[in-house]
Amino acid sequence: MRPSKTLAILPVLLASYAFASPLEKRVYISDVGAIISPADGTSITPGTPFAFEYGDGWGGACHPGYTPISVGLTAFSPTGSDLNSTFQIPDSDYLYYFGDFLITNDEGLPPMPTPPPPSTFTLPEPLDPIYDGQEIYLSAVEQMFDCASNMNNTNQKEVHVLDNQL
Questions:
Q1: Which of 134, 133, 120 is closest to 77 using CA atoms?
Q2: Over 80: is that where the pLDDT of 3 sits?
Q3: C-beta separation of 147 from 61 below 8 A
């Protein structure tokens, strides 16, 4: 083969190699995990604590040390399409945001700066009256980084979007 032909196909070969390698994380969105408490249909009263318990969905073949979750109230039952580019519910979609928490999945791990979820939450004040009589959801977004339970690729992320109607 002449050098000019080799040089002509070199960009094609390099481009095909570049596109064959992963360019970004792949994301799998599911509803694995569970908001155990409060149960669907629970009424919450502003200023009164209500129980909170979350069962993360890491199980199976994946055992991350920590599982990050974000928890808040929304006026809709969120799905994967409601998440922003960082795989979170946008701040503007929360009626009230309880915060980010980190579940420790192995007892021997050191504590992290992000706290674990508390056993109770309190809505400090009533929601805007326009939400009176409407369905409200306690929503949680759980993320697993580089440890997607249904895939054997460390270049992936799994996001669980869950809610219970209040």
A1: 134
A2: no
A3: no
In a domain, 123, yes or no: yes
For residue 32, give its domain range. 25-165
pLDDT digits 0-9 by tens, 87-108? 889 999 999 999 999 888 777 8
57 lies in a domain?
Answer: yes
Question: Measured on CA atoms in the order 52, 123, 158, 106, is the torsion positive or negative?
Answer: negative
130 secondary structure, DSSP code: G
Distance from C-alpha of 52 to C-alpha of 57, rounded to nearest angstrom: 16
8-state DSSP, 114 = S
pTM: 0.73
Distance of alpha carbon 163 from alpha carbon 166, whole angstroms: 9
6: in domain: no
Count of the separate structural domains present in the chain: 1
